[in-house]
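Structure in, sequence out. Go:
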């Protein structure tokens, strides 16, 4: 018989999350201060980022806020592992690329200045990809998940680790010199295809599981009549289909951008005027 969620134990009872609000406000105010106060003091000074860049940063902050605030965080912590997986995808594959692409290069330089060498090393394609895959697998091991759901410090730390590893993962794609050495367009596509391979293993395992092996979620009150096993299967679908779709959309976008650049380059070479032709032979008048 499916347990009934009591009103006092319902995920829909509003919870204040002042820590989340403070972090979101700090990110927004820090970005505003960097553009309006820090930028004019830098040599140059650098241009104000365009409206699209600022909009991407704002969207990244909003997505991050939704992912870690009530009710999504309550659902992901205490009720549904599938909601937990939605949080992971939102933080690493939606918020992270929006934030990275929303921070102009000069601000990235200022942010990472104390650890610039470390970031440049961790932002190398193979390192960033490997680190992201390790974080994905390690943070979803049963022992780690149990700590996540029972310890507030571990809970906060894993969210921070998701965001950090997600931003590092996207730097070889969306970053630029001198912060990181970005991958060339063909390697960006290979990089993202590689990112789709490892998640299929845990995603497939979750999708076809017949056992609710996360104890905290197996004993959690049921929401919407979703059983513990179905919950894990849905989490696998979110990881495989949801995360995979986002990555493949990026791959298609990169391929289209690369093809467009190649066509433009080819057109420019074809239409360029020929200026290096050998001069037509003309007898010297003095020899006539």
């Amino acid at each position: 018989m499916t347990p009934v969620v009591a009103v006092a134990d319902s995920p829909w009872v509003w919870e204040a999350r002042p820590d989340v609000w403070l972090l979101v406000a700090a990110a927004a105010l820090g970005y505003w201060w960097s553009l309006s106060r820090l930028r004019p003091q830098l040599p140059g000074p650098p241009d104000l980022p365009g409206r699209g860049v600022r909009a991407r940063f704002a969207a990244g902050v909003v997505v991050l806020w939704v992912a870690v605030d009530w009710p999504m965080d309550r659902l992901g912590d205490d009720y549904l592992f599938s909601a937990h997986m939605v949080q992971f995808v939102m933080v690493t594959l939606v918020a992270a690329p929006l934030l990275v692409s929303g921070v102009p290069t000069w601000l990235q330089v200022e942010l990472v200045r104390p650890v610039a060498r470390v970031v440049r090393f961790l932002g190398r394609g193979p390192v960033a990809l490997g680190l992201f895959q390790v974080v994905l697998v390690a943070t979803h091991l049963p022992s780690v998940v149990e700590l996540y759901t029972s310890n507030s410090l571990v809970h906060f730390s894993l969210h921070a680790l998701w965001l950090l590893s997600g931003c590092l993962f996207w730097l070889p794609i969306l970053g630029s010199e001198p912060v990181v050495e970005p991958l060339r367009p063909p390697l960006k596509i290979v990089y993202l295809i590689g990112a789709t391979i490892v998640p299929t293993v845990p995603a497939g395992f979750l999708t076809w599981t017949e056992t609710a092996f996360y104890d905290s979620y197996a004993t959690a009150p049921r929401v919407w009549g979703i059983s513990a096993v179905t919950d894990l299967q849905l989490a696998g679908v979110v990881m495989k289909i949801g995360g995979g779709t986002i990555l493949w959309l990026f791959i298609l976008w990169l391929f289209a951008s690369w093809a467009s650049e190649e066509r433009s380059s080819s057109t420019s070479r074809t239409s360029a005027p020929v200026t290096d032709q050998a001069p037509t032979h003309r007898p010297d008048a003095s020899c006539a």
